[in-house]
Design a protein that fits this description.
mainly alpha, 4 helices
């Protein structure tokens, strides 16, 4: 995969997660708290950095969806 293609997919992942946060009216601080409730210990700074750069694992994405209570994700 080219570097440009990887960056494009990172943007899709980041945008999708940000959209779900906006839909739930939740910021990074509350997401960090909700992640802790399901046993995922991350700092606010680490969560913000992962989401803003868009280079996070699918496991992290799934953890965030679980913390947000999202059961279905739509990709355009």
């Amino acid at each position: 995969m080219t570097e440009q293609a990887e960056q494009d997919w990172n943007k899709v992942a980041s945008s999708t997660l940000k959209a779900e946060l906006a839909r739930a009216s939740i910021g990074y601080e509350e997401l960090t708290e909700r992640l802790a409730v399901i046993g995922i210990e991350e700092t606010y700074k680490a969560v913000a950095a992962k989401i803003n750069r868009g280079s996070f694992s699918f496991a992290f994405f799934a953890q965030c969806m679980k913390a947000l209570g999202v059961r279905d994700v739509r990709l355009n």
